[in-house]
Amino acid sequence: MSTTYDQRQVLSSSAADRLDRLFRLYNQRLVRLARNLTNDPATAEDVVMDAWVRAGRSLHQLVSPDAEAFAWLAVLTRHAVSDFYKASRNREIPRDWADAVASFPLPAAPAAEDVALAEPEPELPEHLAAAVAALPAEDQAVVLLRAEGMPYAAVAGHVGRRDAYAYTHFHRAVGQLRLALAR
User: What is the pTM of this model?
Assistant: First the structure.
């Protein structure tokens, strides 16, 4: 069993009086500042209360007079806003790891590979297919593989040649296809 200790600090009466004066002087301005930073009145109130707790803890560090303390309080408020949003990014979301189906949302659409396997492979239009069929066999392979998006190195490996071969034959074959389609 672990023992927890209360970490509250007791303010002296003069420090409590000073904190009360600062609160009366600057609370409304700090709330307006926090509203501008958070764009949410409820969050701004929470953030400012956290800033006042920080001010109470570090009031001994404030050396300026009360009339010039707003800048120090504004810095504490900005830090409180930053910490408020930082905590929401790093918060863990509990999951029931025992029941995988219930704990994870199902996809809204089928997986891309399922769709690709279910649909037939698109075919070339007849006039383009006839022009590709008129090319030499290796040029046909290079053009069709590049049309599927395969990189030159993979195309060259597939036809058993070097990269420069695939690049050269692809561009030569595309030139022949342009001439054939222009006729």
Answer: 0.45
